[in-house]
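Retro notes (design track)

What went well: tokenization of the new backbones is finally stable.
What didn't: we kept losing track of which sequence belonged to which structure.
Fix going forward: every design gets posted as structure first, then sequence, in one message. First example under the new rule, 246 residues:
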């Protein structure tokens, strides 16, 4: 590990012993081609009270492990971001894999003083009609807002200035963070960007578990229930995001 890393990649993780190794494999490949050298990219695993070998695997692979007792995705992202030492910070979910050119692409994007941050976007590890239609249904929102997924990135100074992730939110904390980042950038004439040429690969485990069409059926009902604060919907949201079958 470099004494002064240039890039800090934060991975929030809860019981990710199955998926974390393949993400770290992809990170190592990307780090080897990083212009600043592999040692300039530190990897931080924010271990969100895992009960499996997540933390052990992360340590064995040379990651910085930050224990996070509060079961919250937002809290995990924040803990990792606060531990980051790099001038650039990125956030990636543990069940994804990053593109080999990720570090350099983000580096080039942030060389512009017109960019406050952004995301790489994603492609899926498998496709079906249900997955394709779900993806197509979500894309207009991404085009209009520039709020994308994959590796979400910004300068560490802007992460701190934005206030980080809102830990009051149980879900959609990533969208809220990009909204905060966009507001911050707008004050200074900067904008969000999407790096579609270095998309991350996202797992389809939620679709494997709940069905390829569930985003078009179940998720709208959960979203409406969340807005209306229906107890049954809030409980369902907790089960969906915080009680996965792993």
């Amino acid at each position: 590990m470099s004494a002064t890393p240039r890039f800090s990649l934060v991975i929030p993780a809860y019981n990710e012993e199955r998926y974390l190794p393949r993400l770290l494999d992809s990170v190592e490949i990307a780090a080897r081609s990083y212009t600043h050298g592999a040692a300039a990219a530190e990897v931080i695993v924010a271990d969100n009270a895992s009960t499996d070998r997540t933390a052990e695997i992360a340590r064995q692979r040379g990651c910085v492990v930050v224990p996070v007792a509060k079961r919250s995705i937002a809290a995990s992202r924040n803990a990792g971001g606060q531990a980051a030492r790099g001038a650039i910070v990125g956030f990636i979910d543990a069940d994804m894999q990053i593109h080999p050119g990720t570090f350099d692409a983000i580096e080039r994007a942030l060389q512009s003083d017109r960019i406050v941050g952004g995301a790489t976007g994603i492609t899926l590890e498998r496709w079906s009609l249900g997955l394709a239609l779900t993806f197509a249904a979500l894309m207009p929102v991404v085009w209009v807002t520039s709020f994308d997924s994959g590796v979400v990135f910004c300068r560490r100074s802007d992460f701190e200035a934005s206030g980080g992730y809102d830990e009051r939110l149980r879900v959609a904390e990533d969208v809220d963070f990009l909204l905060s980042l966009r507001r911050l950038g707008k004050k200074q004439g900067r904008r969000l960007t999407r790096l579609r040429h270095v998309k991350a690969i996202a797992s389809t485990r939620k679709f494997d578990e709940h069905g390829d069409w569930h985003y078009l059926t179940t998720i709208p009902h959960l979203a409406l229930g969340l807005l209306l604060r229906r107890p049954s919907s809030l409980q369902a949201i907790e089960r969906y995001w915080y009680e996965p079958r792993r």
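Added context from the reviewer: The chain is about 45% helix and 15% strand.
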